[in-house]
Specification:
The protein is an all-alpha fold. It is elongated, with a radius of gyration of 19 Å. Helix 2 links the parallel strand 1 and strand 2. 78% of the residues lie in helices and 3% in strands. The protein has a two-stranded parallel ribbon with strand order 1-2. Helix 3 packs antiparallel against helix 4 and helix 4 packs antiparallel against helix 5. The relative contact order is 0.14. It contains five helices and two strands.
Length: 148
């Protein structure tokens, strides 16, 4: 299959982000096992421990971090793919914004899970949002020449 370099890059960086998202259920599961905190009685019966719904601070912190990733990464993946397919910018633009976004999301995750004081988590979040805004406005500006 022959793909444009922009599309290949968008797929490459999107895959990295999908793998990042896929690690969180594993982290939550291992943390539940280690802390013996579960959400269903069957797990307690099998593994011991206790049932706690939304009350374990460590597990909830991991889940909130994952939710924040979902809220930011999914729009990025869609936008970067649209950016690549429409040719709204150059390959170097796509690579740069993708790398900045990924670095920002990892900064956000490290700050969130490591309970590092603000403003580091906020900076990671804001840079990621700015990447999404950049992609969206560039796509809209590029496509507006077609009078939609």
């Amino acid at each position: 299959m022959i793909l444009e370099p922009e599309v290949k890059s968008a797929i490459w960086y999107s895959t990295i982000l999908i793998l990042k998202l896929a690690t969180f259920p594993l982290i939550v599961g291992f943390t539940r096992l280690r802390r013996k905190v579960f959400v269903v009685e069957e797990d307690v019966a099998c593994l011991g421990g206790q049932v706690k719904l939304n009350s374990d601070l460590v597990i909830e912190r991991i889940r909130r971090c994952h939710l924040n990733d979902l809220e930011n990464i999914i729009p990025f993946i869609m936008l970067v793919c649209i950016f690549a397919v429409t040719g709204s910018g150059s390959l170097s633009d796509l690579v740069l914004v993708s790398r900045v976004f990924i670095a920002a999301r990892f900064l956000h995750t490290i700050a969130y899970l490591g309970s590092i004081r603000q403003p580091f988590r906020a900076i990671g979040w804001a840079v990621g949002v700015l990447c999404n805004v950049y992609l969206a406005t560039t796509i809209l500006r590029d496509l507006s020449k077609y009078n939609y």
